[in-house]
Amino acid sequence: MSAVEHPLGISFEFFPPTTDAGKEKLLGVRDALAAREPRFFSVTYGAGGSTQARTTQTVNTMRQSGINTAPHISCVGSDKGALRELLAQYRETDINSLVALRGDLPSGMGGTGELRYANELVEFIREETGDHFEIAVAAYPESHPQAPSFERDLENFARKARAGANLAITQYFFNPDAYFHFVERARKLGVEVPIIPGIMPITNYTKLARFSDACGADIPRWMRKQLEAYGDDSESIQAFGEEVITRLCERLLDGGAPGLHFYTLNQAQASLKVLDNLRA
Ligand code: FAD
């Protein structure tokens, strides 16, 4: 069964653009990706509320395509009052899906806030709004970078499911075995929610290496070596990326992954190419 035919299907993540040109470009990206009938779009949120207005604006822009759009919401650096207000605003405007995160505060920015971890945020959303929202949470097949151990991180992930999350989206990874191992271990802990792999298309090696170091995603040595060898040859990097990511998605879907969530970085082309290859 292809990801597109699967009940959970595909989804695409965006960040709120900062410039007029970025906003304009996103409209074309939105329409190109909406044509693939994703199950949902999602829009990231800057911890501490730093992108709140832009996230809301972008969510509204994305929803105009007719695709259900989930704002990300994070608790670090926020208090319950501000979160309550934001939840009320989302309810009033008929938003019914959220991606609930702890978030990361930029260094030097304020205290941690009233809710320390994402499981506490999920509990808070359920206490405040019952079953109104479908809630997705983050999962880390290769462990969250601050986790003391894989086991502890897995237990913390299970807390989020028990707190009332409906589904999980993983951090991106390039080794499908990391995903299968994580899912198997989560099931043994009694976690039943769908765990959707997060897919990062490869278009730029320097950016990918920087992101991956920051979020603890492993770029296997064979991929690093090959990508480094391409240097500035962006055409070869993209062709290699397309092939590697298509193969990764095939293995994930063949192994039972319940959908694919693409980190688009506000670009359509790389995700579309992978989807076309998967259909073929
Ligand atoms: P948590 O689940 O709270 O985990 C954070 C750390 O604390 C982990 O090491 C965990 O093991 C530990 N922990 C968790 N619960 C407990 C507990 N009860 N007791 C003790 N330790 C605990 N960031 C943004 O700023 N904006 C976004 O829009 C955004 N979107 C994302 C979307 C996805 C799909 C993913 C995978 C990540 C996203 N992030 C985003 C990044 C995320 O905010 C960071 O990875 C952050 O460091 C952790 O958030 P979390 O919700 O996974 O935290």
Structure description:
Helix 4 (118-129) runs parallel beside helix 5 (150-162). The protein has one domain (3-279): TIM Barrel (Alpha-Beta Barrel). It is of the alpha/beta class. It starts with 9 loop residues before the first strand and ends with a helix. It is built from ten helices and eight strands. Helix content is 47%, strand content 15%. It has helices at residues 20-34, 52-63, 80-92, 118-129, 150-162, 176-188, 205-215, 221-230, 234-254, 269-279, and strands spanning 10-14, 40-43, 69-74, 97-101, 134-139, 167-172, 195-199, 260-263. It has an eight-stranded parallel beta barrel with strand order 1-2-3-4-5-6-7-8, surrounded by four helices. Flavin-adenine dinucleotide is lined by residues 44-45, 47, 72, 74, 99, 101-104, 117-119, 138, 144, 146-147, 152-153, 156, 159-160, 169, 171, 198.
- Residues in helices, as a percent range: 40-55%
> What is the residue-averaged pLDDT?
94
- Into how many domains do the coordinates divide? 1
Q: Which value, in Å, is the CA radius of gyration?
A: 18 Å
The fraction of residues in strands falls at 5-15%
Task: Tell me the span between the first and last alpha carbons.
Answer: 13 Å
CATH fold-type name: TIM Barrel
Question: Would you identify the CATH architecture?
Answer: Alpha-Beta Barrel
Q: Which shape, going by the Cα principal axes?
A: globular
Low-confidence stretches: none
CATH top-level class:
Alpha Beta
Number of helices: 10
Query: Which strand order do you get reading across the main beta sheet?
Result: 1-2-3-4-5-6-7-8
